[in-house]
Amino acid sequence: RFRDRQPPIAARSYRDGYNHGSSGFQPRSRSRSPAGNELVRRSPLANKGFHSSIAVALAQITYKMQQESLRLKIDVLGARHPDVITMMMQITSDWFHQGRYRETEPIAVQIVQFKRKILGASHPDTLKAMYDLARTVLECGRYRESEALAKQIVEDQIDVLGERDASTLRTQNVLGDSWRFLGLYEKAASI
């Protein structure tokens, strides 16, 4: 396939929301299905030569096992236990990379709530969890909500981490993407 033969810059641009065609880079549709081609494309198994139907089946099985494992861990240890929160963070990362943004969001919200209660609102780990949530909301296509969340996070990160910290710059990228998808190109370019 053409997309598989693109240079790394074009591949990164595709992940970031652009298709490369004969007319240059074009914004792609933000709607994604958690099953099917998107899941196979993002699956590490597909990159190792597994047949696409096997990769999809294994990704579905893994998804269900992660759900059950999380439920059991919450039942045994309680929702606020550090091991449970760590597992939730690992699961949201896995699901995000599989394109399961809608399933990721409720868990990302819980992580932010737990980290705020346990560590405080201005702790770097809480800010990282908030960044993950803003990125997930952006991928769900809720650009205004992502913009508001990213603005808040950037302000907090500048106060806590500094203006040139890598985490602050990543969150500014989410803010710029929000503005870009909202059609606010001048604001996006100013970051």
Task: Give structural notes.
With 191 residues, the protein is mainly α. Helix content is 71%, strand content 4%. The chain has a two-stranded antiparallel sheet. Helix 4 (52-77) packs antiparallel against helix 5, helix 6 (101-119) packs antiparallel against helix 7 (124-139) and helix 7 runs antiparallel to helix 8 (143-160). The longest helix is centred in the middle third of the chain and has 26 residues, at 52-77. The two termini are 35 Å apart.
Strand order of the largest sheet: 1-2
Strand content: under 5%
How much is the radius of gyration in Å? Answer: 18 Å
Helix fraction? over 70%
Would you identify the regions where 5 or more consecutive residues have pLDDT less than 50?
1-37
Number of strands: 2
Q: Encode the helix/strand succession as letters.
A: HEEHHHHHHHHH
Taking the alpha carbons of the first and last residues, their distance comes to 35 Å
Count up the helices.
10
**Dominant shape:** flat
Name the structural class. mainly alpha
Major sheet summary line? 2 strands, antiparallel
Mean pLDDT, all residues: 80
